[in-house]
Design goal:
single chain; mainly alpha; two-stranded antiparallel sheet
C-alpha cells in the first residue's frame, strides 16, 4: 500500500476505535513508552554544565531511535498492516473529540465538574475559571490539538510513512515534557521545543487554511492573517485564530499559570467573549468537518492508485 492508502485507513480506524482502554490496560501505549524514554534521558543528562548540548543529544537520540524503529516495522512484509495500525494508534482525533466533548458534558453537571474535566486537557490554573473560561479553554485545546494530534501526524506520515509519524510523536512528546521555559528545562529542553516548532510550522498553517476553506470563510482567514501572530506560540495561534473566526468568538487572552496571570492578547478580540458549553459542541463539529475533508481528499487521491492495480 502507498502512504496515502495507509493513512486513509489509519484515520478511519482511529476515528472509529480511538484509544481502547482494554488494550492499553494490557500493553504500554507507544506515546507512554516515549515518555518513559524522555524521563530516563532527563534524569541522566539534565544536570551540570552544557545542558543545551545534552538536550540536543537527547533529542537526536530520540529522532534516530524513532526513525530506526519505524523503518524496521515498515520492512516487515505484511502489506503495510503494521504501518496502518501504528498510524491509527499515533493519531489522536477520536481521543481529542472524546476529551473535548467530556468538558461540555461535565458543564451540564455544574461548574466544578467542568473545571475538573477541562483540567485534563489544559495546563492553566482552573480553580477560578467561570463557565465562559472553561469553554474557551476547551475550544482552544480542540483547535491546537487538532493541529498537533491529527494534521501534523498526518502530514509527516504522508511524507515519510511510519518513521515520519514516529519521529514527530517523539519530538512532540519531548516538547510536552521538557520544552518549558523554566529553570530546570530552559536549556535542556531548548532543542525539543525548537524542533517541535519547526515540525509543526507547516501543519499549523495547513490546519488554519483547512478550517477556513471548509467553511468558505474569508472573514475567518482575515482573522488568521491578522491575529495568529498575537499568540504566544508561533504555531498554536493559527488553528486557534481559524476556530475563533469560523465560530465568531474570541479565544486566547489572559489566563493563569501557577498563580501568575499572563497578558496574552485575544485572538479575534472583536468576537463574542461570553462562551457556553454549546460553543464547545460547535468546535467539535468543526473538527469533524475538517477530519472528513482530509479523509475525502485522501480517498479521492488513492482511488486512481487502486484502479491502476
Amino acid at each position: 500500500m502507498t502512504h496515502v492508502e495507509m493513512l486513509f485507513l489509519a484515520l478511519v480506524l482511529d476515528a472509529f476505535f480511538g484509544e481502547p482502554d482494554w488494550l492499553w490496560a494490557k500493553v504500554q501505549h507507544p506515546v507512554k513508552l516515549l515518555g518513559i524514554v524522555v524521563d530516563w534521558l532527563d534524569v541522566r543528562l539534565n544536570f551540570g554544565r552544557q545542558r543545551k548540548i545534552k538536550g540536543g543529544i537527547a533529542v537526536a537520540g530520540l529522532v534516530i531511535g524513532a526513525a530506526v524503529t519505524g523503518n524496521l516495522i515498515a520492512f516487515v512484509p505484511d502489506y503495510g498492516l503494521l504501518e496502518v495500525l501504528g498510524g491509527a494508534v499515533l493519531l489522536a482525533h477520536r481521543s481529542l473529540i472524546d476529551h473535548v466533548k467530556a468538558v461540555s458534558k461535565a458543564l451540564e453537571s455544574g461548574l466544578a465538574a467542568g473545571r475538573a474535566s477541562v483540567a485534563n486537557i489544559v495546563g492553566r490554573d482552573v480553580e477560578a475559571l467561570d463557565e465562559s473560561s472553561v469553554a474557551r479553554a476547551a475550544i482552544e485545546s480542540a483547535a491546537e490539538n487538532f493541529s498537533d494530534g491529527v494534521i501534523a501526524p498526518t502530514f509527516w506520515f504522508l511524507i515519510f510513512g511510519l518513521p515520519g509519524i514516529l519521529i514527530y510523536k517523539a519530538v512532540n512528546t519531548a516538547d510536552s515534557m521538557i520544552g518549558h521555559l523554566n529553570e530546570r528545562y530552559g536549556e535542556f529542553g531548548w532543542a525539543a521545543a525548537k524542533l517541535d516548532d519547526v515540525m509543526n510550522w507547516i501543519p499549523a498553517r495547513l490546519t488554519a487554511a483547512l478550517i477556513c476553506l471548509i467553511y468558505r470563510s474569508r472573514q475567518a482567514w482575515e482573522t488568521v492573517t491578522e491575529d495568529a501572530d498575537l499568540h504566544r506560540s508561533p504555531n498554536a495561534g493559527w488553528p486557534e485564530a481559524a476556530m475563533a473566526g469560523v465560530l465568531g468568538i474570541a479565544l486566547s487572552g489572559p489566563r493563569s499559570y501557577s498563580g501568575e496571570i499572563t497578558r496574552d492578547s485575544y485572538v479575534n478580540g472583536s468576537g463574542r467573549r461570553v462562551l457556553m458549553g454549546g460553543d464547545i459542541d460547535r468546535s467539535v463539529d468543526v473538527l469533524w468537518r475538517a477530519w472528513a475533508a482530509v479523509v475525502i481528499v485522501l480517498a479521492l487521491v488513492s482511488m486512481p492508485i487502486v484502479l491502476l492495480f
